[in-house]
Amino acid sequence: IPTIDDLENFIYKSSENELRSFQYTKLELGKSWAKNSVLLHCDSTRLKKAIEYLLFAKQVEPFVTYPVNHWEVPVRDSLTMNKLLITSIENYKKSSDRFFKERFAYQAIRLAHYSRQFKRTTELYEQFFQKDRSKKLMYYWSLSHYAGALRSLGEVAKANVLFAHIYENCPSRS
Fold first, then answer.
1. The pTM of the whole model exceeds 0.70
2. Exposed, middle or buried by CB within 10 Å (0-12, 13-18, 19+), for 50?
3. Residues 29-60: pLDDT tens digits?
């Protein structure tokens, strides 16, 4: 079973080049990765799907995060963000794995929200998560973007109720 430290290293500290090399071979891992329990214990199909998702998420990340210096205004390339949003929806449709489908849906919602496409954010949330009764992590993270979009569209009371629901049920969003 992969350890938390190994998961964190794999997800947050691996470079795009390292991820690409993991896709094709586990035989030539450098010393720092040779004993990583994620790489040692994941079957190759699941690992390949995880790597494909992480590579996509790393492409999205610069457009949906804020600069370290909060005084800087983030630069958003709406054309690239829209292409990534479309790719995210395509990846959602192609994926047969619910775990990854939820994450591609979240990335689409996130991209729509950060590109200030608030109506589209609400439509994507309603398409992907409104009927979801599992109430897993991606549900709440997507709901927070939905609530933010509603607030931007002037539905402040509804957004506030949703934010309260999120804060009550999702510790990572409080």
1. yes
2. buried
3. 667 777 888 888 777 778 888 889 999 999 99
